[in-house]
Amino acid sequence: MADGNYPTWKTKDVVALLGWLDFCLQSNQDFDATIIEHLKESSKETSNDTFVVTKEQIDYQFSWLARKQSEQLKERIGLTGAEIRRQGSKCLDTFSKEMKNNIKISLSGYTTTYAEILLSRTSFQSPGHGVTNSTGDELTSNPQGKVPADSIESIGQENVSNEC
Hints:
By secondary structure, the chain is mainly alpha-helical. It contains six helices and five strands, in the order E-E-H-H-H-H-H-H-E-E-E. 50% of the residues lie in helices and 6% in strands.
């Protein structure tokens, strides 16, 4: 699962990361307080391995995605990991159509699954735990759509212009 101190990010893990980021940006949820638990839960839904990462490894993944995009676009000064965190997956315009679609499916699933949170707007997050609803009941992750379980290194990329 992990190589040294760095986990092996599979396509499904990156989809869960970016789909959850987009969901949190759209619904004003606290990404940092929920992402680690979300990745653990989403990995349980799709495999026998639990994907465990730290906040530092998540930050590194955002930086890695930004560097890969800059390489694809052959830009000297490109996107940063912090910009991905602020803008969401729409900044990653070199992803393949399939990858973008998988992220949209994931976002749609989260939006449906957590509709109670979106409607109530009185929800809160319990630090270090999953997202909770307004009554304090924990809502576990429920990733929607199947994505290939290959390594992030092999994600198809294409150069598509997208304003970020």
